[in-house]
Amino acid sequence: MTTLKQIHDATTLNNGVTMPWLGLGVWKTKDGDEVVQAVTDALAAGYRSIDTAASYGNEAGVGQALQASGIPREQLFVTTKVWNADQGFESTLRAFEESRRKLQLETIDLYLIHWPVKGKYKETWKALIKLRDEGYVRAIGVSNFQVHHLQDLIDDSGVVPAVNQVEFHPLLQQLELRRFCQKQRIQLEAWSPLMQGNLDLPLLTELAGKYGKSPAQIILRWDLQHGIVTIPKSVTKHRIQENADLFDFALTDEDMTRLDGLNQDRRFGPDPDNFDF
C-alpha cells in the first residue's frame, strides 16, 4: 500500500523522473479565464502537476497560468498529449512544437499518445522517443492503451512507456492491465477517477460519514493507496481544494477491500478497443 503524507509526494517513474501522485486535470475546461483560474486555484492549493492535451483546446490558458504563477519551472510537472489526427512520426513532431508554443515551455515533463490509433501509434511512439532522447520531453507514455497495445509498442521499440493514463475508478478497476503495468514498471494514472460525478453509491456514502470526508475524497484516497496517480478535474475553487485534502487520513485495509469489491468493469468513457478514431 502506498503511504502518502502530503500533496507534494511523488512517484518515481521507470526512467528516474519523479511525478506527483496528485494533479489537476483540465479536460472540458474552457480556454481563457476558466482554465487560467482553475490552474491558478490549483497551484495556490499546493498542486504542482497539471494535465492537459492538444485536443482539450486549452494549452494556451494553462501556459498563461503557469507563467503568471511565479512558481519555479523545476517545481512544476506538466503533461500534454498528441491527438489522434496528428499521429505519425513527422506530424507528431509538428504537433509537439505547437503544444510547446502554446504552453510557453521549453520542455514538457510528460508527453502521451492520447489513444492507440491502429497503424499509427508505433510511428508516433518513435517520435516521442526522439523528443525524449533530444531532451524536449522528460518522460514519455501513453493513454488508453490496453495490454495488447502496450505489448505491441514494447516489442516494436524496446522502450517501455513511463505512464499509462486510463479510465480508472471503483467501477472500472482494470485488474489485468494493472498487473501488466506493475510487472513492466509502467505507472498507471487515472482519468475520470470520480466517475464523471456518478458518486451515488451506498458504500461511498457510508465511508464518507465514517472518515468525515466527501465521497470524492474517499475515491481519490483509494486511488492513491493503490499506487495510482490521479488527476481529478474541477473548475470550482472549493472542489479543487477539497480534492487535494487527502493527506490527513488513510483508509483501512478492510475498507480498501470493500471498495475493491465495487468493480463492474463499467466505463463512462470510450472503450479503447472500440473507439472511432
Automatic annotation (TrEMBL):
<feature type="domain" description="NADP-dependent oxidoreductase">
    <location>
        <begin position="22"/>
        <end position="263"/>
    </location>
</feature>
<keyword id="KW-0560">Oxidoreductase</keyword>
<feature type="binding site">
    <location>
        <position position="114"/>
    </location>
    <ligand>
        <name>substrate</name>
    </ligand>
</feature>
<dbReference type="InterPro" id="IPR020471">
    <property type="entry name" value="AKR"/>
</dbReference>
<dbReference type="InterPro" id="IPR044500">
    <property type="entry name" value="AKR5G"/>
</dbReference>
<comment type="similarity">
    <text>Belongs to the aldo/keto reductase family.</text>
</comment>
<feature type="site" description="Lowers pKa of active site Tyr">
    <location>
        <position position="81"/>
    </location>
</feature>
<dbReference type="GO" id="GO:0016616">
    <property type="term" value="F:oxidoreductase activity, acting on the CH-OH group of donors, NAD or NADP as acceptor"/>
</dbReference>
<dbReference type="InterPro" id="IPR023210">
    <property type="entry name" value="NADP_OxRdtase_dom"/>
</dbReference>
<keyword id="KW-0521">NADP</keyword>
<dbReference type="InterPro" id="IPR018170">
    <property type="entry name" value="Aldo/ket_reductase_CS"/>
</dbReference>
<dbReference type="Pfam" id="PF00248">
    <property type="entry name" value="Aldo_ket_red"/>
</dbReference>
<dbReference type="InterPro" id="IPR036812">
    <property type="entry name" value="NAD(P)_OxRdtase_dom_sf"/>
</dbReference>
<protein>
    <submittedName>
        <fullName>Aldo/keto reductase</fullName>
    </submittedName>
</protein>
<feature type="active site" description="Proton donor">
    <location>
        <position position="56"/>
    </location>
</feature>
